Amino acid sequence: MLTFHPVEHQKQARKRIAVIPGDGIGKEVIPQAVKVMQASGATLDFTEFDWGADRYLRDQTTVPPDGFAMLARDFDAILVGAFGDPRVKSNIHAKEILLGMRFKMDLYANVRPVRLLDAALCPLKGVEPKDVDFVVVRENTEGVYTDAGGVFKQGTPDEIATQEDINTRKGVERIIRYAFEYCKAHQKHDGSPRTKVLMCDKSNAMTHAGELWQRTFKEVSAEYTQITSQHMYVDALCMQMIRDPRQFDVIVTNNMFGDIITDLAAGLQGGLGMAASGNIHPGRTGMFEPVHGSAPPIAGKNVANPFGAILTAAMMLRHLEFTNEADKIEAAVLEAVRQGKTTEDIGGKLGTREAGEWIARNMSS
Ligand code: NAD
Ligand code: IPM
Ligand code: MN
Q1: What is the per-residue burial (b if ≥16 Cβ within 10 Å, else e) of 19-50?
Q2: Best mutation site among 292, 298, 337, 345 for ligand 1, i.e. most ligand atoms within 8 A of its Cβ?
Q3: Nearest ligand to the C-alpha of residue 289?
Q4: pTM score over 0.90
Q5: What whole-number distance in Å separates Cα of residue 216 and Cα of residue 65?
Q6: pLDDT digits (tens, 9 = 90+) for 31-74
């Protein structure tokens, strides 16, 4: 049975947080998120890990032996920055660390809330905060991300490369069920109930996987008679997302479509610097990370927007039932946006550190 509480902890007990800033702007935004959590009064103990490109280039370690078991055993949640460094062309460390956590810890639900804080942040005209308040529930452990496939006759004119799309009944069913349970258990920010789950696929072209998703969605949705079920092809959904984002509530989709549509959705919120996410398996140690990457061109310049990471920290605190602290952080970010106390990507004049400090100083108690 799904539950949205990690249950085996007592509310407000000290929580152990593993912090993995990673590469590029991850190393700048995560310290701000940590600072804000400390200022929020949440009782947390942080342990930082140096997993990322620098470590990999130094000693070839991506994840130390027993790393994932250690995270699951010794921590209540994990806060991650981003992975990706031009010096590591293969991107092997990102694959082993980031996808490693998602896959090996079986964090099957990638929950990506899409919320507009202020009309000024949305590139669409006439769109208000109340119009953009939906959640993408992305399957996080299979699809084209399993790296199944191979190459044959590499480097010859007859070269073949295959990339397989793995969809299991178990994987598809549990993510669809998660989306319905999420819809049942969560309200919109204006206090109204969530009422719709939309499954997004490409079953008109990808017929084998599509049929499994379609059939499973139909079966699971029949158990949730209070919730409206809908379907859209992913291409049409992209168009609808910018034509009329008001129509969306909970979207469930596969790994790759979820990746793509959440960057598009980040655009509705003010860009990648504003988007938060959680990688969740109910009852287990979850991993929380901003949607953005390591942004090498802007790294080290104190210009990256830390709000995506800070909102991710709030999401993590809410998951750990630090509800009051999460509310305070989100309220302060909203106020910062309203007052223009932000980085330049969303129109302000502050640096990464200064924007983080503003949030840390301006949380009401
Ligand atoms: P990216 O998200 O790093 O950057 C895309 C664009 O958004 C860039 O213009 C960047 O400057 C801007 N941007 C991103 N975050 C921002 C922030 N906080 N503030 C202001 N602007 C921000 O995506 P990319 O350029 O496609 O990828 C760069 C590297 O990051 C690659 O190695 C990629 O594989 C990796 N990546 C990692 C993750 C992750 O670890 N979760 C996610 C996405 C990309
Ligand atoms: C994300 C990223 C990752 C993904 C990359 C870095 C593998 O884009 O978290 O959205 O595709 O899942
Ligand atoms: Mn992505």
Answers
A1: bbbbbbbbbbbbbbbbbbbebbebebeeeebe
A2: 292
A3: 1
A4: yes
A5: 37
A6: 999 999 999 999 999 999 999 999 999 999 999 999 999 999 99
